[in-house]
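Title: Comparing notes on inverse folding

I've been comparing how different people in this forum approach sequence design from structure. To keep things fair, I'm posting one structure and asking everyone to reply with a full sequence. Here's the target:
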């Protein structure tokens, strides 16, 4: 038997949420059984737990879109008992039971070996948010963005993606501007590597199709009017990596930035990203993300606390990353 956070469908949007004792026989099919030591609480997990959006595709569901732990059993020759592994995405926590549990059974193709130099707790302090941030940085670089071209804007700067994106970009030599609704956290953002703090209120309402050329690139996890204004303020030939929709799924923009300034809008998906790209992102995170950043950017909670923290996360009251110690 093992403990899991189990969501059960109800007649109202919010599911029933309970810490439940489960048996291994109840786990869905897969090639590898993993003893989870740490998971995280991401924006998507918070939506699933609170029922604020239709994230869950199958009921009942164990949420948790990522986890790290050790292999217990494997029918796939790539993994043996005792191997340290991690997982991000692939519909885990949405259509397949996820990481907010002490055990999971998943397909071997979904796993990655834990990079050398990272513990399970550190990997989840990075988590899907940090992995997504690295995918955004890689997208900017694939499109030719260099530090000499000018500053890079990071929206949603106090969130999981934003905070790690700031640290990664600063480490690569970029001048980083950070947009946030929590200006009281300015010193924290500067400690991560931001040099200029912008009130998100200047970006999250309707703006002109083309605006002053301010940034050479951007990492946006917000969407909606924020993304539209970001694109309108990108310098000629600049690049925007878009990975989220915290403000909304809409994109009320025009083609002007793209056909008059040659701006590139690069979509970044972390859920179904190819295995090779995932492996590259995690190897780079292990090498390039300053280890000292993780403790001050991370809150660690027990599995029983996840439901309460989910509401705080959606209300914008969580800074950085939330690691869930599922064995606590």
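Reply #1:
Here's my take.
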């Amino acid at each position: 038997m093992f403990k899991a956070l189990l969501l059960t469908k109800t007649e109202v949007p919010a599911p029933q949420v309970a810490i439940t004792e489960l048996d291994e026989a109840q786990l869905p099919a897969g090639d590898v059984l993993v003893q989870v030591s740490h998971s995280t609480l991401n924006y998507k997990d918070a939506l699933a737990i609170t029922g604020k959006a239709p994230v869950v595709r199958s009921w009942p569901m164990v949420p948790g879109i990522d986890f790290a732990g050790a292999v217990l059993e494997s029918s796939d020759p790539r993994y043996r008992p005792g191997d340290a592994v991690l997982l991000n995405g692939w519909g885990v926590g949405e259509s397949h039971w996820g990481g907010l549990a002490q055990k999971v059974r998943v397909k071997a193709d979904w796993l990655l070996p834990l990079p050398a130099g990272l513990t399970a707790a550190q990997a989840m302090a990075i988590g899907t948010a940090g992995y997504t941030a690295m995918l955004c940085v890689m997208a900017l670089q694939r499109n030719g963005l260099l530090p000499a071209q000018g500053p890079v804007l990071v929206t949603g700067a106090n969130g999981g993606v934003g905070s790690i994106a700031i640290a990664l970009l600063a480490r690569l030599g970029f001048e980083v501007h950070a947009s946030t609704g929590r200006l009281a956290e300015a010193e924290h953002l500067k400690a991560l590597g931001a040099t200029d703090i912008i009130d998100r209120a200047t970006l999250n309402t309707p703006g002109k199709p083309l605006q002053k050329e301010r940034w050479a690139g951007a990492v946006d996890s917000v969407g909606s009017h924020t993304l539209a204004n970001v694109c309108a303020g990108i310098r000629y030939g600049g690049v925007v990596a878009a990975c989220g929709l915290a403000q909304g799924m809409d994109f009320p923009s025009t083609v002007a930035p793209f056909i008059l300034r040659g701006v590139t809008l690069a979509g970044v998906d972390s859920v179904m990203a190819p295995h090779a790209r995932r492996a590259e992102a995690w190897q780079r995170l292990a090498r390039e993300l300053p280890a000292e950043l993780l403790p001050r950017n991370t809150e660690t909670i027990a599995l029983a606390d996840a439901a309460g923290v989910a509401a705080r996360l959606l209300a914008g009251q969580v800074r950085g990353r939330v690691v869930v110690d599922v064995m606590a």
